[in-house]
Automatic annotation (TrEMBL):
Pathway: Nucleotide-sugar biosynthesis; UDP-alpha-D-glucuronate biosynthesis; UDP-alpha-D-glucuronate from UDP-alpha-D-glucose: step 1/1. This is UDP-glucose 6-dehydrogenase. Belongs to the UDP-glucose/GDP-mannose dehydrogenase family. Its EC number is 1.1.1.22. The keyword Lipid metabolism does not apply. It catalyses: UDP-alpha-D-glucose + 2 NAD(+) + H2O = UDP-alpha-D-glucuronate + 2 NADH + 3 H(+). The lineage of its organism: Eukaryota, Viridiplantae, Streptophyta, Embryophyta, Tracheophyta. One of its GO terms (molecular function) is NAD binding. InterPro entries: 6-PGluconate_DH-like_C_sf, NAD(P)-bd_dom_sf, UDP-Glc/GDP-Man, UDP-Glc/GDP-Man_DH_C, UDP-Glc/GDP-Man_DH_C_sf, UDP-Glc/GDP-Man_DH_dimer, UDP-Glc/GDP-Man_DH_N, UDPglc_DH_euk. Keywords: NAD, Oxidoreductase. It holds the Pfam family UDPG_MGDP_dh. The active site is at C272 (nucleophile).
Length: 480
């Protein structure tokens, strides 16, 4: 029986390994983590992450060929294939701070693998890492040369949160990079055999190590660039009277462009896009490619611009001040169908409003108050370094309330900001909400989820990203 151990029981390690266990009943999969609360949650009925379909997959294999444990060293020592799916955040200090990937967690995992291994192993990079990381990992693994053969593979994960199980069941492709030696090719074949249990062979792409590592960064950069492109267009649409949805539809019909990922919004979030582009920028700079680095940096600049533009629009529409006014925030997760708030645009929007002294009332169906409080207290890039936790300042605490109902959040509010595209926000009784709000009552739709015309008929002043502006909004131009 092949034994797989995955280091890191997070958003990637957990779902990926659960699906491997389900699809390969003859493989034993153990997911290990240094975080005891995370492992305890995986071993309970209340999984640590919310992902549609995940509960069901875990239930089917947990205790049979899928296990979760904090006994990291034991399970690594026993495994034939070790996946490393630990966090690779942006460095906050020292060389490359604010750009380079922080490989502290990766390095410590690699050192531990080297120390505890007594048999040959395939070590798989599942985390997103800078190009050439495999070379560094190889050096760490072989530093004390115990005669053990380690083969390093790069197998980046392309799942999207919110659709992770669907993506894992039916991936667009699986990418495996390895050394072009016979040992490297044998290792590629062993991992390919695992995926081939359910993924058609023509969807499993095998490359050299560096192509696989770079492809993941490139894929995220292209995806984020698409969002920034449509968001840049949304600002021009508002200025000209064009409608970004119509523009997206028109350009998406071109088969070279395609219709997906063309929705304008308040900006992209999530743990990966910004971090991976910054990492790409850093690598370009290290190779003296300043023009290329600047090109990709612009994707992040537009994303920041879009968030600032949104906050400025809110404040300017409400007579240039939100001081003491209640503003309801509907949605805090970075997208629907996840409870993940890492780099969510909601953090910047809320901080912007708090900075202008608004009182904000937040409702998200999947995000706990504790998480929101923590997110609003953290400095940029600190979110993936749990040790940096800081308490929230007393003023900010007074300005923020988290509630468990959209109606409660909007009661007595001057404005509503929709920041996550949860389906339930389309179904709210907006007449009831309008009746309970201060007047004039505003809706700022950062995801284009509500029917703006219907809301205007009720009496709301509605701002929807990239859509023609109400007369009110035209009279109060926002300065970005
Ligand atoms: P996460 O933060 O949810 O999970 C990482 C886990 O690794 C944590 O539970 C942490 O306690 C554990 N860990 C860290 N160091 C450890 C060590 N030495 N030994 C044992 N456990 C350790 O991170 P997530 O989101 O799962 O991401 C992991 C990697 O996958 C990152 O490189 C990310 O860029 C990449 N990725 C993430 C995607 C996503 O949608 N979240 C998608 C594709 C790739």
């Amino acid at each position: 029986m092949v034994k797989i151990c995955c280091i890191g029981a997070g958003y990637v390690g957990g779902p990926t390994m659960a699906v491997i266990a389900l699809k390969c009943p003859k493989v034993q999969v153990v997911v290990v983590d240094i975080s005891t609360p995370r492992i305890t949650a995986w071993n309970s009925d209340q999984l640590p992450i919310y992902e549609p379909g995940l509960d069901d997959v875990v239930k089917q294999c947990k205790g049979k060929n899928l296990f979760f444990s904090t006994d990291v060293e034991k399970h690594v020592a026993e495994a034939d294939i070790v996946f490393v799916s630990v966090n690779t955040p942006t460095k906050t200090q020292g060389l490359g701070a604010g750009k380079a990937a922080d490989l502290t967690y990766w390095e410590s995992a690699a050192r531990m693998i080297a120390d505890v291994s007594k048999s040959d192993k395939i070590v798989v990079e599942k985390s997103t890492v800078p190009v050439k990381t495999a070379e560094a990992i190889e050096r760490i693994l072989t530093h004390n040369n115990k005669g053990i053969n380690f083969q390093i593979l790069s197998n980046p994960e392309f799942l999207a949160e919110g659709t992770a199980i669907k993506d894992l069941f039916n991936p667009d492709r699986v990418l495996i990079g390895g050394r072009e030696t016979s040992g490297g090719q044998k290792a590629i074949a062993a991992l390919r055999d695992v995926y081939a249990q359910w993924v058609p062979i023509d969807k499993i792409i095998c490359t050299n190590l560096w192509s696989a590592e770079l492809s993941k960064l490139a894929a995220n950069a292209f995806l984020a660039q698409r969002i920034s492109s449509v968001n840049a267009m949304s600002a021009l649409c508002e200025a000209t009277g064009a409608d970004v949805t119509q523009v997206s539809q028109a350009i998406g019909k071109d088969t070279r462009i395609g219709p997906k990922f063309l929705n304008a919004s308040v900006g992209f979030g999530g743990s990966c896009f910004q971090k991976d582009i910054l990492n790409l920028v850093y690598i370009c700079e290290c190779h003296g490619l300043a023009e290329v680095a600047n090109y990709w940096k612009q994707v992040i600049k537009i994303n920041d611009y879009q968030k600032t533009r949104f906050v400025n629009r809110i404040v300017s529409s409400m007579f240039n001040t939100v001081s003491g006014k209640k503003v309801a925030i509907l949605g805090f997760a970075f997208k629907k169908d996840t409870g993940d708030t890492r780099e969510t645009p909601a953090i910047d929007v809320c901080k912007g409003l708090i900075g202008d002294k608004a009182k904000i009332s937040i409702y998200d169906p999947q995000v706990q108050e504790e998480q929101i409080t923590r997110d609003l207290a953290l400095k940029k890039f600190d979110w993936d370094h749990p040790v940096h936790l800081q308490p929230m300042s007393p003023t900010s605490v007074k300005q923020v309330a988290c509630v468990w109902d959209a109606y409660e959040a909007t009661k007595g509010a001057h404005g509503i900001c929709i920041l996550t595209e949860w389906d339930e926000f389309k179904l709210l009784d907006y007449k009831r909400i309008f009746d309970g709000m201060e007047k004039p009552a505003f809706v700022f739709d950062g995801r284009n989820v509500v029917d703006a015309e219907k809301l205007r008929k009720i009496g709301f002043i509605v701002y929807a990203i990239g859509k023609p502006l109400d007369a009110w909004l035209k009279d109060m131009p926002a300065v970005a």
